[in-house]
Amino acid sequence: MASKKLLLLPGDGIGPEAMAEVEKLIAVMNADLGAGFETERGLVGGSAYDAHGQAISEADMAKALAADAVLFGAVGGPKWDPVPYEVRPEAGLLRLRKDLALFANLRPAICYPALAASSSLKPEVVEGLDILIVRELTGGVYFGEPKEIIDLGNGQKRGIDTQVYDTFEIERISGVAFELARTRKNHVTSMEKRNVMKSGVLWNEVVTQTHKAKYADVKLDHMLADAGGMQLVRWPKQFDVIVTDNLFGDMLSDVAAMLTGSLGMLPSASLGAPDAKTGSRKALYEPVHGSAPDIAGKGIANPIAMIASFAMCLRYSFGMVAEADRLETAISAVLDEGLRTRDILSEGKTEVGTTAIGDAVVERFRALSA
Ligand code: NAD
Q: Which of 246, 264, 282 is where one domain is finished?
């Protein structure tokens, strides 16, 4: 890839504080490794509303469409609670996901050995955990029509959502899961509710056909989504890649996230379809956490989720696998040294702020790259 165009959308609350730590890494990669990142900045969420009266301006949307990858901080906060629904901060993120057609949401749940004790599960159940949930993001019950509340005229109302999936949607999300599995432990578990839902029957059928046609080298298991929820908290290390629909993925990825301890540690990626000519995918990388207004501006936010999101960007948008590995090793090393932001602090560890963690990761990364 000739250039590497990154659009930075720090957003609101702790978003800009966390993004600043990634900007340090980008500068180091450009200076030391000649990585060639070209960055632009834009506004999203409440900050975009304050500047333009919109959750994201058309100019910034155009930049997002032209970029190779978008790095997104977080949006929202009480200041913008009164703004009209269509321009609420989250509308900026939804617009980005829709216009970039980001149908595949990747949520890793990695438990760093140094943090195994902060999980609500026993350390031996989560230590060394490394699973990836691939959630379908643009279809299913969150978008299916009809979607309405109707008045039945007899004092009753009826709320309707429609779970709907077409073959191509299941084919393309399972294809993403199988391809990612090939770069990991080569094992996919597909989760649906084929015992009670027609969309689950089709999901199961299409995943099985896609596997047979193109990915027979990958181990495939099917599991009912409720049983999958139980297995995730019983023995999560049995999984490698889990592929599931929008609704089950929303819930299962939050369950998996909590296995690892803190919101401040969790990255994510959302990918679109490969471009027919270049093969590259539109992509947006963001931490799972929100704008954390309760700690914004205090310099105590954990930047690791944002930094780990950048590691995913290196891996999935730019094929910089060695650099992504080094960055993840650097994060792990900083935790092993005992440096902690308040959200992951435990006895005997050293509490430091956002910039100190960011600086330590940069330093470790440079040492590993030397
Ligand atoms: P939140 O994730 O912002 O915060 C939940 C709790 O976790 C808070 O106590 C916060 O201090 C803590 N926390 C979160 N990230 C942290 C980090 N990196 N380091 C240390 N502590 C961290 O969720 P919330 O409080 O429910 O929502 C706050 C605002 O964020 C709301 O306006 C909400 O709509 C928005 N939100 C945005 C996104 C997004 O931008 N993708 C996601 C979730 C929530």
A: 264
Q: Which atom of ligand 1 is nearest to the CA of 18?
A: 18
- Structural domain harbouring 335: 1-103+272-370
What tokens were used for 46?
């409440």
- Angstrom distance (rounded) from CA 121 to CA 235: 10
Both tokens assigned to 288 = 């799972």
d(CA 31, CA 232): 42
CB distance 361 to 21 below 8 Å: yes
342, 202: one domain: no
291 is in an annotated binding site: yes
* pTM of the predicted structure, to 2 decimals: 0.93
Cβ contact 25:362 at 8 Å: yes
Question: pLDDT digit string (tens) for 221-265?
Answer: 999 999 999 999 999 999 999 999 999 999 999 898 888 877 889
What is d(CA 159, CA 150) in angstroms, rounded to the nearest whole number? 7
How far is 8 from 43, CA to CA, in rounded Å? 9
Instruction: Say yes or no: CB of residue 201 within 6 Å of ligand 1.
Output: no
85, 167, 228, 265 from 257: Cα distances, Å: 29, 29, 14, 9
Please identify which of the residues 99, 130, 254, 325 carries the catalytic annotation: 254
Asked whether residue 81 is marked as a ligand-binding residue, the answer is: yes
Q: Say how many CA atoms lie within 13 Å of 227 toward its Cβ.
A: 12
